[in-house]
Design brief:
Elements: H1 7-25, H2 28-35, H3 49-73, H4 78-95, H5 97-105, H6 120-139, H7 148-168, H8 172-188
Length: 193
């Protein structure tokens, strides 16, 4: 009897296939081959290709979110946490080529209209992470008073725009030239003090 394959191995193998061929062209047979399994054996691990794909996307999104959270948690001030959150979240994608390939092939991963967000729970946690930093900054006097929930949602929408432009539309130069300006605008505004 064959030893059961752990979930992470399955997800990483499926990620490799989905990144290489896209959702539509990837077959469960491709994934079975990557895992060195018989074609029907994949069904012991997933109900369908769609279910496995959604599990893969959740996995890479949560892995990304965990890396950002770990970088943020090392910072002391809310301003530093905010800068590191922005830098780490965007820089991570340039390192994770498989996730970038998924984003390029599936624009629904980061929809611009949250009513149709298939990964709403994960994206909501990202908004909450921003909100917690803003609230901390308000509490300790670093940031002015604001509606942290509304501002967090606005920042996350801007962030999705950067991702779409830089990684989905393949304009990585846009991020290099505009990210510092966006951070400057967010942290200092446009009014002369």
């Amino acid at each position: 009897m064959r030893k059961r394959i752990d979930d992470e191995t399955i997800l990483l193998s499926a990620l490799k296939c989905f990144a290489a061929y896209g959702y539509k062209k990837t077959t469960l047979e491709d994934i079975a081959g990557e895992l060195n399994l018989g074609n029907s054996s994949v069904y012991a691990y997933t109900a369908s290709k769609r279910a496995l794909y959604e599990d893969v996307v959740r996995y890479v999104m949560m892995r990304w979110q965990s890396k950002v959270k770990a970088a943020v948690d090392k910072q002391r001030t809310a301003a530093d946490k905010f800068r590191v959150l922005c830098d780490t979240a965007l820089a991570y994608l340039s390192e994770d080529q498989a996730f970038c390939a998924l984003l390029k092939n599936d624009h629904t991963i980061f929809p611009m209209f949250p009513e149709s967000d298939p990964y709403e729970e994960i994206n909501a946690e990202s908004v909450a992470m921003i909100s917690r930093i803003l609230e901390e900054g308000q509490t300790n006097g670093e940031f002015r008073e604001m509606d942290t929930q509304a501002v967090s949602e606005l920042i996350f929408s801007m962030y999705k725009g950067f991702i779409i432009r830089a990684y989905i539309e393949c304009e990585e130069r846009f991020m290099e030239t505009h990210m510092s300006q966006a951070l400057e605008l967010l942290t200092h505004g446009i009014l002369k003090k």
